[in-house]
Every structure is written in C-alpha cells, then in structure tokens.
Amino acid sequence: MIALALAFLCALTWSGYSVISRHFGAVPTESVTVLCLATALLSLLAHLAVEQTQWPNGALGWAAVVVLGIGPVGAAFFTWDVGMKRGDIQLLGVASYAAPLLSTLVLVLAGIAKPTWHLALATLLITAGAALAARASAAR
User: Fold this and answer.
1) Which of 1, 12, 94, 140 is the most buried (most CB within 10 A)?
2) How many helices (H) and strands (E) does the chain have?
3) Domain spans in the chain, listed from the N-terminal domain onward
C-alpha cells in the first residue's frame, strides 16, 4: 500500500512539473540541469539513509551506469522539457504511453521477462488508453 501511495505522489510530482514547465516556457531548457543535480543529491541522501551500497561490477557495469545516466535517463528530462514548452502536449502525452510498452517488450525480447497473458492484457490496455487519448486529441 505504501508503494502505491509513493507511486501516486510521484505521478502528481511529474504531472505538476509538466504543467509548471509549460507555464514557464521562457526559462531555458538548460535549467533542467539544476533540477537533475538536485534530484541526484536527494537520491544520494535517500540511498545513504536506507539502502546498502552495491557498486557496479567491472568496466561494463560502470559504463552501463554512465550510458543510462546520459542517455535515456538524462536526455529524457531535457526532451520532455522541450516537448512541454514548445511541442504538442496531447501528442507528447499519447507518445508517453509507449514507454512502458516498449521497455517491457525489450525485457521480453532479452529473455528477462516471460510473455504472459498478463503482459498481453497490459499491452491491450495501454494501447486502448493511447487510442482513447489520441481520439480525444484529434477531436479538438
């Protein structure tokens, strides 16, 4: 139950950030760097308070951490900021439905997750949600 409450708070935080970002379109996207650094510091403090440190194994492990930080994780914040300030918000929202779907597909293709009927049902629900959102966007 605590995990669901925290996930809900995360959703509110992200949606609030997105709405606020749209209203401050004149603020340069580079300012996201400050938010990323603040998030990293808060994450470090939370990690030190409640988790046991597990360092990556070898050069490949460290390379994966760096690539994830710069690539999909780091670039996502900057891309989202540009999209919120200058893009089509409805299209961005619909496209965001693809993230969990694509990441799950990668896990299945890599053999980390098994293709189950639960995943098939989730895929259908995600696709239906995206279609519904796209239809509402097109109606405007």
Assistant:
1) 94
2) 7, 0
3) 58-87, 88-140
